[in-house]
Amino acid sequence: MAKAYWVTTYSAINKPEKLADYAKLAGPAIREAGGNFLARGEAVKAYENGLIQRTIVIEFESVDAAIAAHDSPGYQAALLALGDGVEREIRIVEGAE
User: Fold this and answer.
1) Predicted TM-score of the model (pTM)
2) Closest to 66 in 3D by CA, of 13, 12, 8, 21
3) What are the distances in angstroms from CA 54 to CA 8, 29, 61, 68, 72?
4) Do residues 4 and 65 touch, judged by C-beta distance below 8 A?
5) What tens digit of pLDDT does each residue of 9-45 get?
6) Is residue 97 pLDDT above 80, yes or no?
7) CA 6 to CA 21: how far, in whole Å?
8) Number of domain units in the chain
């Protein structure tokens, strides 16, 4: 079974305090669900239409595990804390075998 990667890209951080509240809850919830943070921070370079903005890459054992992490009660509580604090996109992609 191929691993899965949860890729989050931010286009705007409107309320940094809400992002901080989210991070306190989201990190533990994701780790508890088996997520391993591979990259987290501001992009160092962007090409084409990319933005120099916060980017996160998290590895999971499978697509099902990544989806379960997102849908878990702990992560859903983090999303409530985040509210309208950011504009971002989350994609879950299957790893190449």
Assistant:
1) 0.93
2) 8
3) 8, 19, 24, 23, 23
4) yes
5) 999 999 999 999 999 999 999 999 999 999 999 999 9
6) no
7) 20
8) 1
Domain of residue 10 covers 4-94
> How far, CA to CA in Å, does 75 sit from each of 12, 32, 49?
20, 10, 29
- 79: domain CATH number is 3.30.70.100
Q: Give the whole-angstrom CA distance, residue 1 versus residue 64.
A: 11
N- to C-terminal Cα separation, the chain = 9
Q: What is the DSSP string of 3-56?
A: -EEEEEEEEEES-HHHHHHHHHHHHHHHHHTT-EEEEEEE-S---TT--SSEEE
